[in-house]
Amino acid sequence: MSQQINLISPLLLKKRYAFGLREMALGLGGVLAVALAWTAYLHVQAGSLETQAAGQEALQAAAQQELDQLNAAADRPVSALLTGRIATVRAQVVQREALLASIGGTLKSTATGFAPRLRALSHSHTEGVWLNGFTLSPGYVELQGSSLNAGLLTTYLDQLGKQAAFSGMRFSGMTAGTSATAEGAGLPAHIDFTLISGHAGTEGKSDGQ
């Protein structure tokens, strides 16, 4: 009968650590990979934020430029030409309202033979020309008005001649001259004109003045 006795002490055996150099290297590699991935993500996020900030700065610069342009336009002095045109338009509106009111009342009180000519006057329109008054009778027509220049008056006569009521009519008399009251009334320079066709009579006379 034999028996083996282990005389080697367990304390003398070489101990193995749970984490060796290989495991530590793998762990450090994983940590480094995670750190690199996180750094790349932060870099991408920073680039996106920089792009958005650049876009916002561009929008702000454009808005500031537009605001500066509006402020510059608001600080400009009022154009004398524009002011004159506004005054002219206002004068034309007043004249036309008075003329339309006169024509409306005259259409009710005159014979039917004058109605086509009255309608033709109310429908004729040339920018820069307005009537101040008119006289109609069976053989006589007189138009009194104003025009910014002679060329516009010619255009007005051409348009008036296209109306059936004035087709073929020839104006045998015309007077035109620079208005002496334009400057005092605050209006731009214009000419006053009088157009006459036929001979004056009293029968059936209609005065729009």
Distance between the termini: 158 Å
Query: What's the rounded overall pLDDT mean?
Result: 75
Counting DSSP H or I runs of 4 or more residues, the number of helices is 4
Structural class: alpha+beta
Q: How do the helices and strands follow one another from N- to C-terminus?
A: HHHEEHEEE
What share of the residues does DSSP label as strand, in percent? 15-25%
Radius of gyration: 48 Å
Strand order of the largest sheet: 3-4-2-1-5
The number of strands is: 5
Low-confidence stretches: 202-209
Question: Helicity range of the residues?
Answer: 40-55%
How many strands, what sense, and barrel or not for the largest sheet?
A: 5 strands, antiparallel
Shape: rod-shaped
Please describe what this structure looks like:
By secondary structure, the chain is α+β, with helices and mostly antiparallel strands. It has a domain at 80-207. The protein has four helices and five strands, in the order αααββαβββ. A hairpin with a 2-residue loop joins strand 1 (129-137) and strand 2. It is rod-shaped and about 130 Å long.
